[in-house]
């Protein structure tokens, strides 16, 4: 993480404004813009006050008409607490997943993207009413990673390496594609085309031998979040490979344009990946009940994974650049140098701190079967959800990388669309604890939790209680039977460990 200079802030904001209708940033957009730039550039220590000051000094922000600024949900905010004093920066800021809205995400009809604040981040709001059971949207995974139990079948060619359906279920047997360098197969030409354009060129152990230790680690540990990180970075770097970049004339040029239109260029993919809610994996892990005992062993395997990832994918890795006869890397350095920001962005992505964030991002955003979804990731949590996620049948089989969002009850226009990240039928204390430790937010204050908290005489006041202290109170009050609590603790521990990504 870096603390940007004034010049770097101005350069980043100016780049965002390029091509827009205006030459200044509206006051109402400052918070969202800062969150966006922090994620895209891995900035730290940029307060809202400094950001506003730099933009004002360089005539990049609209002059405020009043003492308050409008937040993205239409309410007024002065950014001050009681008595007009500015709030001190929370010590838990580092533990709050940060997200922003990528304007290139295609939002489905009937809903709109909405940025709430720096803590809650983005969400989806109904722009019309929905009836109970009505389909809200369907979506295919932006980053597809197989469920851990299916990885061996994918590696052997039994399951398609892109959609993870049985290759034997292919609608046309002649359309099945085989990789000439490994055992992976695809059930359709479309799956093969997507895989080659987004990850396989860089993660195939035959095409890129340096990826073998990484793939072996993912397979041996059933480490789904690491696999998601690998495929995310591979999708980004694949935009800089010969496969996605033809010559400047003829058929190859048209194919290149088609690939960019379908899968995005480097800047488009980088912005999309950066927009997902992001938090360090160590922040998540440190909330696990067994962290004190597993810390040393986990940090060791983290270091192993980081080295394997860099050796496999980082075009500037020491093992690649210093070896007498390094394995060829499919990323073209001239394409990196073609845009001055790319080299710095790639080097930042392969720092250890960024690696931890990428792991955290994968674990916070992955759907239960493992995919990262552009629209699905907007959905915030409620223990009283109005939307449920189902997997769409393909060829009579539930497709693990295609989801449908359905209205659980009538949804009114302008109502936020929310799903439950966990089983909402579990007891209050357990729900609060899992959300805090697995998704790094809390206490949950959805209508169901508020009602149950009131029933046990609790109300969260951040000025009086830390989150951890309050959650301890919730656990005691909501489950007065210590024996029942002890009986449930092992299953909770097992559930938490299972949710950590491997």
TrEMBL record:
PROSITE patterns: SET (PS50280). Signal peptide: none annotated. It comes from the Eukaryota. Keywords: Methyltransferase, S-adenosyl-L-methionine, Transferase. The keyword Transferase applies. One of its GO terms (molecular function) is histone H4K20 methyltransferase activity. One of its GO terms (biological process) is methylation. It catalyses: L-lysyl-[histone] + S-adenosyl-L-methionine = N(6)-methyl-L-lysyl-[histone] + S-adenosyl-L-homocysteine + H(+). PANTHER family: HISTONE-LYSINE N-TRIMETHYLTRANSFERASE SMYD5 (PTHR46402:SF2), SET AND MYND DOMAIN-CONTAINING PROTEIN 5 (PTHR46402). This is Histone-lysine N-methyltransferase SET5.
């Amino acid at each position: 993480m870096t603390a940007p200079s004034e010049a770097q802030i101005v350069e980043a904001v100016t780049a965002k404004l390029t091509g827009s209708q205006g030459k200044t940033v509206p006051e109402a957009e400052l918070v969202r813009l800062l969150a966006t730039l922090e994620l895209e550039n891995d900035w730290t220590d940029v307060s809202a006050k400094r950001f506003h000051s730099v933009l004002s000094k360089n005539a990049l922000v609209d002059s405020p008409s009043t003492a308050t600024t409008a937040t993205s949900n239409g309410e007024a905010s002065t950014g001050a607490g009681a008595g007009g004093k500015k709030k001190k920066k929370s010590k838990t800021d580092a533990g709050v997943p940060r997200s922003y809205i990528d304007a290139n995400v295609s939002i489905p009809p009937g809903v709109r993207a909405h940025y709430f604040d720096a803590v809650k981040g983005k969400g989806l709001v109904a722009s019309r009413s929905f009836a109970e059971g009505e389909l809200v949207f369907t979506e295919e995974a932006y980053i597809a990673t197989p469920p851990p139990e299916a990885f061996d079948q994918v590696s052997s060619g039994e399951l398609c390496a892109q959609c993870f359906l049985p290759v034997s279920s292919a609608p046309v047997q002649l359309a099945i594609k085989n990789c000439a360098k490994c055992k992976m197969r695809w059930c359709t030409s479309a799956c093969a085309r997507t895989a080659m354009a987004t990850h396989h060129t860089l993660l195939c152990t035959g095409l890129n031998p340096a990826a073998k230790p990484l793939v072996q680690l993912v397979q041996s540990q059933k480490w789904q979040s690491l696999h998601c990180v690998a495929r995310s970075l591979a999708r980004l770097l694949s935009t800089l490979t010969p496969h996605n970049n033809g010559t400047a004339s003829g058929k190859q040029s048209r194919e290149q344009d088609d690939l960019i239109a379908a899968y995005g260029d480097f800047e488009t993919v980088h912005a999309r990946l950066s927009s997902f809610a992001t938090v360090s994996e160590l922040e998540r892990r440190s909330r696990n009940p067994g962290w004190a005992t597993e810390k040393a062993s986990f940090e060791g395997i983290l270091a192993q994974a980081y080295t394997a990832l860099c050796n496999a994918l980082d075009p500037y890795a020491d093992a690649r650049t210093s070896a007498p006869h390094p394995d060829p890397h499919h990323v073209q350095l001239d394409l990196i140098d073609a845009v001055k920001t790319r080299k710095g962005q790639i080097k930042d992505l392969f720092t250890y701190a960024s690696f931890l964030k990428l792991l955290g991002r994968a674990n916070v955003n992955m759907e239960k079967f493992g995919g990262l979804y552009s629209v699905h990731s907007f959905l915030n949590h409620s223990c009283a959800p109005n939307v449920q996620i189902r997997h769409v049948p393909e060829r009579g089989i539930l497709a693990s990388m295609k989801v449908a969002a359905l209205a659980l009850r009538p949804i009114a226009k302008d109502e936020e669309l929310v799903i439950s990240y966990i089983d909402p039928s579990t007891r209050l204390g357990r729900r609060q604890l899992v959300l805090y430790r697995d998704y790094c937010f809390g206490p949950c204050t959805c209508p169901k939790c508020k009602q149950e908290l009131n029933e046990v005489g609790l109300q969260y006041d951040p000025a009086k209680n830390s989150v951890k202290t309050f959650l301890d109170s919730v656990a005691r009050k909501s489950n007065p039977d210590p024996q029942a609590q002890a009986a449930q603790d092992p299953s909770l521990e097992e559930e938490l460990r299972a949710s950590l990504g491997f």
